[in-house]
Amino acid sequence: MYARHAQGALAPETERALRKAALAFTSWAVAQGPDALPAAPETVAAYVDALAAQGKKPASIRQVIWAIATLHRAAGLPDPHQGGAGPLGAQTHGPEPRHASASGRPARRRRGCPNPGHGGD
Length: 121
Hints:
Helix content is 46%, strand content 0%. The protein has a single domain (10-94), classed as Tyrosine recombinase, N-terminal domain (DNA polymerase, domain 1). α3 runs antiparallel to α4 (58-74). It is mainly alpha-helical. The longest helix has 21 residues, at 12-32.
């Protein structure tokens, strides 16, 4: 019933991203053994760690966490990210530190760029 009322509430690209991320998580959980729905916070953290090990970017991992939470809310279940089991793995996979240049000095920011990962001053 809720799915019918929710149709069109999200942009088509957002719906596709949600479906893709939810299916990937569910498939991973089935292959690994834990329940995907409801998922324990530790299950979501393990999935996040697996994604990080695959080299997924932090923004992609945040999107997956959002999709898992949305999947749970749609099923009338609590968000496993808010499960109180402490921070998820994704929170440890934030932006990488600036790397040293060939001279051994830390990279510098580009002028006018607030992103510390872009180098230059």
